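> tool_call: predict_assembly(chains=four)
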Amino acid sequence: MEDKLLLLRQHFEEIVSLTDEEWDFVQSHFEYKSLKKHQFLIQVGQPVDFEYWIIKGLVKAYSIDEKGKEHILQFAMEDYWVSDHCAFQHQKPGTIFVDCLEDSEFFCLSLENREKICFEVPAVANFFRIKSNHGYINLQQRILSLLTMTAESRYEYLLNKLPKLIQRVPKKLIASYLGVSRETLSRFNS
Amino acid sequence: MEDKLLLLRQHFEEIVSLTDEEWDFVQSHFEYKSLKKHQFLIQVGQPVDFEYWIIKGLVKAYSIDEKGKEHILQFAMEDYWVSDHCAFQHQKPGTIFVDCLEDSEFFCLSLENREKICFEVPAVANFFRIKSNHGYINLQQRILSLLTMTAESRYEYLLNKLPKLIQRVPKKLIASYLGVSRETLSRFNS
DNA sequence: CTTGAAAAGTGATGTAGGTCACTTTTAGCT
DNA sequence: AGCTAAAAGTGACCTACATCACTTTTCAAG
């Protein structure tokens, strides 16, 4: 476990500096969790008690429309944060599903604990501020890509940006992330 | 000007508490700017020295594709923050345009000053953290709407969510925000 | 190594929404 | 009030992509 916590510390220290005492305080507010492939981290209608930092593994966050079709909001793997941020922030029931595409391990942070460490250790508030800002920028890029690009160029773009991801995820899920049908995506390569 | 700064303080205090001394310190790091309709706040290729809190007015943030078509990332009005967050954060040249749809006034915050007040006044770091988180949640919603909804229902959704905005913005810009052509949008009402 | 299920590929056909060209309406300036 | 330019509406036609139905390939579990 120490090695895993060290990874988390490194993740924080990529952005802000923490003293050993600060880190001891911070790390004591995380819980550990591990799940097998196909198990759910978050489900629609269930409480969302945590946001999760992924130690290892791969998950998908998605919602299901009236027709039963899956729409993928995010893939998240090692070193990513994932949650139903909306439900988590407002402590409401989940609005999306998050489940594991591979066996996965997480460090879990409750809202109460997050606010505690943010108000106790300013560097942590700055860490989350900067992280959140990066996330915002990424989503803006994705919106632009949905507005400006064809399905095919969105696919090429993703191939370049996250080649590793494509290896680990079935194409039909990539299609659902790009907002295109499985069949259409399949016709792109050829 | 005092009244305008008071508005800004209220904006901060909706989320965090600040002492008078803290506020004095914080407010001294903002600059005031005012622009007429059609003037640019940010331009592609130009330095992005600030992020802007809108005291009054309305702006659009957009990019222009190879075919010269405009794609609107965001409308922002009173009490909103706006910038080219990506360029601002990395101090790179602008990647989008932001211009005024109405005469507008802003408080401007440089990156240096933002980091200064965030590291000096922890409440401010928490303010931006929480704000940024809200922004992230909004963008996620918009991505979901682009993935799951038809152009028509996205329009209806927007009509319900921001009726005031529709009054102030020409429909062709709404179309560009929704990712639909002007002509198609025009056929929805009828 | 086999086998059953999930994933991927493929053809035929349907449709939401785009594009182009033109008309009508609205709104800002002098 | 009168004029110009931008905005909005509309018809005809086009295309990217969806959907459906089916086949082939891949892969994991016994």
